[in-house]
Amino acid sequence: MVQDEFVVSSRAVANVAVLWVASIGSAYVFTAVGIPPLLGSLVAGVVLQNATNGFELSSRFRETIETVGLCVILLVSSMEIDIHAVARAGGVSLRLTFLPGLVEAASCAAASFWIFGMPPALALSLGFILAAVSPAVVVPGLTRLQKMGYGVEKGIPSLVMAAATFDDIVAITGFSISIGIALDNQENLALSAFLHGPVSIFLGIASGLACGLVLAVTRFCPHSWHRGVIALELGLLTTFGYKRAGFDGSGAVATILMGIAAKLIWEQKRVVEYAKCDGGDLFERIERDVNFVWDIVIRPLLFGSIGAAFNLDSMPVGNVSKGCAIVIIGLLVRLPTAFLSAHGQGLTLRERLFVAIAWTPKATVQAALCSIPLTLINKMKTEEYDDKEKLISWGTQIMITAILAIAITAPVGLLSIQYLGPRLLSKETRGNGSDS
Q: pTM for this one?
């Protein structure tokens, strides 16, 4: 069982079905007009929550779909990582992976501490939520530019897409450590930081490599759909297992490394030593199957449920303006940091400007993480904390700010990639239109 109590009623199932249908429909309409489909699902949830009577999603369902969503996001991201592109980029990729996200997280944490009065660790957890770049927004836009030949000669689309995934790993790991410290009532802060930091990362690395080896063994389940099911099962097992053990960050690291390890084994053909088939194109088919689950089931429910948590009647206008201010502060710091981090690899000023702009959209990680602090706070015993109501207000503000970040940066970021890419990037004159 995912939770000790999970009551399923006919009304709850009907509400989930309505949310799924509305999210799919809205996503289709938004896609038709050139807006990311995830925003359509988000709007559908907001409308159902605020413009209809009787619609309500249980907190248990929302928590479960967010955990599943995070698992699938990480699994898809691990399959989209181009290790070779990252290696070719060298220092540029390393700087883009760490510097913009860490600087934005620290800036947003400082702003949250000043504006909301949040404790430093809780403010830093919000900073890491906001720091993650969304591959779901970045990858489609850059893939389109790559097929058209823009920036291909210098590998800019591959560089940004690969570094975006690693950026998410850093953000999710930082969030897991920060939220663990912020809501841990242990008196020994150093012990708490050690358990949620090095120990959590070590457990994630060890189990991720082990799961990657299991996923790579195709002797008993040689078909691609078998591998897709096993990939999802292993990802969910590590995600929910470590979540129950209190090491959320371990599950995230394990899911990412599982896909990377399996992909490297298949690429190096070592799998033929203990498999019935060559894994050359097997990973692409698994990625297609997992992406299908994401597009049809998980994404509509995840973003729809986040939108349904956005209750306009109980939301102070001041909190919205303060949340927008924090998002804007983070972007104002992130843009120049990304621009400076892109120095090297022969990139021109215009190309570095494009990399910085393409490094701004936020969506998937924010949707998966934004309500976790509030959920954890609501589960805490009142007698363990002097001012739980204050913690609840901070948890609510974290969720509001993350949703605002999605609404502001996802459409602006995608449109910027689509319209500024052809103007800032050089088009390859060769006819192949690929990096290779």
A: 0.80
